[in-house]
Amino acid sequence: MKIHEIIRSSRKERGMTQDELAKYLGVSAPAVNKWEKGVSQS
């Protein structure tokens, strides 16, 4: 399983939106979206 798949499945298991995860981590929602698409890992 690749990191973007792990991020997405973990977020969904917790019932979180990308926006909620972004706020929790202190990053932007577009950053989380990129991570989940495998476009960016930073």
UniProtKB/TrEMBL annotation:
CDD domains named among the record's database cross-references: HTH_XRE
What Gene3D superfamilies does this protein's entry cite? lambda repressor-like DNA-binding domains
Q: List the InterPro entries.
A: Cro/C1-type_HTH, Lambda_DNA-bd_dom_sf
Question: Record's SUPFAM superfamilies?
Answer: lambda repressor-like DNA-binding domains
* Domain called HTH cro/C1-type: residue spans: 7-38
From what organism does this protein derive? Faecalicatena faecalis
Recorded hits in Pfam families, A to Z, give:
HTH_3 (PF01381)
Question: Origin, by domain of life?
Answer: Bacteria
Q: What is this protein called?
A: Helix-turn-helix domain-containing protein
